[in-house]
Amino acid sequence: MIDNLEFCYVRRVMDEAYERLCDVYLGTSVLGPVRLYSARDSVDREFWALFCALIDFQMPVVSVLNPMLIGLVKHIEKRNLSFLDLIYDAKLAENILKEFEWHSPRGSRIGFTHRFVKIGDIIGLFAAFKRIHEVYGSLGNLVKELYARHKWDSEPMEGVLRGLLGVMHNYGGRSPLIPKSVDSPLKRFNLFFRWLVRPYPDMGLWSFIDKRHLLVSLDLGLQRVLTRAFQLKVALNWRGVLEATKFLRGINPEDPTKYDYVLSRVSIMGYCAKNLARSQCYLCPLINICKSSKLPRIAEAKPLTSVEMKILEDFLKIHGGEFDKVVTEYTLGRYSADALMHAKTCNEYIVEVERELNYMAIGQAVTYRYLYYKHSGKMAKPMIICRKASRELKEAAQLEQGIEVVEVSEI
């Protein structure tokens, strides 16, 4: 699946993208409101996190789910209540879910709304939560007991999930939010376990679970990305979850679900569209390791134009003191980057020079980064030096691809 790509390069690309994107992910994930809730204790926060995970489907996250959950959190805290208060009092929960105010991009709204979840479904879920709290004292206590029972299984979390679902059903949880079996991918439960186990930006509340045992949160978007990037074809079922997790363990045995952030963002942001022709490969952080990516057709080695040379010279007049070596028209086989610069901090930059930042320049920069690694075995930071760059494109290049974009006025 990654036969003709250096394994260590795939790992480094994924790790670098994770470090760059994990903070930003909070704004496009329900994990954002989960972390926002200043619960009175971890017991309260555990149930809040599971509730948020279970309603995280078939609804726009940024425009609906996140603002709605943030509004609910603020309302609970304003009333000096805890989430457990709602779990224990069905009438209170119904009233709160009907009356809280929240603000979407389209204006103020009132009450809980979801395409497939009714308030009655949530009350049914809370009934199961209540019994778990009464019997075990916390969701964490139940999961800890289940994990201890299955820790030495080939897939410990499979046993934990079966046990948790069994308990929720036995305790009167007839809500459609509780799946009937583990035959489905159980994406939302696996997402919840990642939130509770992994360190920041996840919550790291359950240190008793080894993150090596976590399972991938498989959905249609992740399925598509795995197929296109690595030619890993997995079904959207429980077997697919195990196969996808096994693959990611091959990349990072200690923390396979770490890459949920990178792989899911590619789909969430629309870079890997259902229609490949509409995909924005130049903005995808996986472009250099994706077997389906549309890398730009770059011209064979050619000298810098007079305009490009002037832009580079103006850059060096301002920033030249930061570098101890600059090689222009740096050869990369049949191709050449506009420059390779070695900074006094020992960082290396592979450089593309353009009059104005554009999508093609971004594609060329990431291509040169990959070619440089192929030829030298070292990672260089991509840089685009230009006269002008739109704010949106500059932010996208810096965030999604880690490209340093420097605008230089004419001197």
List the helices and strands and how they pair.
Elements: H1 7-25, H2 31-36, H3 42-54, H4 61-78, H5 83-88, H6 90-99, E1 101-104, E2 107-110, H7 119-136, H8 139-150, H9 156-170, H10 187-197, H11 220-230, H12 238-251, H13 260-268, H14 306-319, E3 323-332, E4 335-343, E5 348-356, H15 359-376, E6 381-388, H16 391-401, E7 404-407
Parallel strand pairs: 5-6, 6-7
Antiparallel strand pairs: 1-2, 3-4, 4-5
Helix pairs in contact: 3-10, 6-7, 7-9, 8-9, 11-13
Q: What's the SSE pattern?
A: HHHHHHEEHHHHHHHHEEEHEHE
Number of helical stretches of at least 4 residues: 16
Report the span from N to C terminus: 50 Å
Strand order across the largest sheet: 3-4-5-6-7
Taking pLDDT < 50 over at least 5 consecutive residues as the criterion, the unreliable ranges are none
Average pLDDT taken over every residue: 91
Number of domains: 2
Q: Roughly what percent helix?
A: 40-55%
What amount of the residues lies in strands?
A: 5-15%
Major sheet attributes: 5 strands, mixed
Secondary-structure-derived class: alpha/beta
Walk me through this protein's architecture.
This protein is of the alpha/beta class and 411 residues long. It folds into 2 domains: 7-268, no CATH class; 306-407, Trna Endonuclease, Chain: A, domain 1. The protein is 50% helix and 12% strand. The strands form 2 sheets. A 5-stranded mixed β-sheet has the order 3-4-5-6-7, sandwiched between helices. Strands 1-2 form a two-stranded antiparallel sheet. Strand 6 (381-388), helix 16 and strand 7 form a beta-alpha-beta unit. Helix 7 (119-136) crosses helix 9 (156-170). It is elongated, with a radius of gyration of 25 Å. The mean pLDDT is 91.
